[in-house]
Write a structure and sequence with these properties.
By secondary structure, this protein is α+β, with helices and mostly antiparallel strands. It is about 25% helix and about 40% strand. The protein has a single domain, classed as Nucleic acid-binding proteins (OB fold (Dihydrolipoamide Acetyltransferase, E2P)). A five-stranded mixed barrel has the order 1-2-3-5-4. The termini are far apart.
Length: about 110
């Protein structure tokens, strides 16, 4: 019984911390020019959606994390045939994090922008 109480306390503490971290990841919506990182930008070895957004006068690239939503949009939108001069206007809703110096958005919704 003495060993059970400290273990229970630690479990409750860590479950509370994970809830706080999950709440910090807020969804954002970005709208910009969508192209393929492999086909148009020649930056990756595999196809990946990239949305370039103007922020404070500079271009910021958001790389879409590979999930069912981004893969479905990649095939349906014509991203692979888009070029930097003729991109696909794209609107993405999801959570953003930084990985290896790049902004990566995990999309919950992707659609063509008007």
């Amino acid at each position: 019984m003495r060993k059970l109480f400290p273990l229970l306390s630690v479990a409750i503490l860590f479950s509370g911390l994970s809830l706080v971290v999950a709440q910090d990841a807020k969804e954002v919506t970005i709208t910009g020019d969508g192209v393929c990182a492999k086909c148009a930008l020649k930056e990756t070895k595999t196809c990946q959606n990239v949305v370039t957004v103007k922020e404070n006068g500079t271009d910021v690239k958001y790389y879409l994390a590979a999930n069912a939503v981004s893969k479905k949009y990649h095939g349906a939108s014509g991203i692979c045939t888009a070029t930097p001069d003729a991109p696909v206007k794209t609107k993405v809703t999801g959570t953003v994090e930084e990985k290896d110096g790049k902004k990566v958005i995990t999309a919950s919704k992707v659609e063509k922008a008007e």
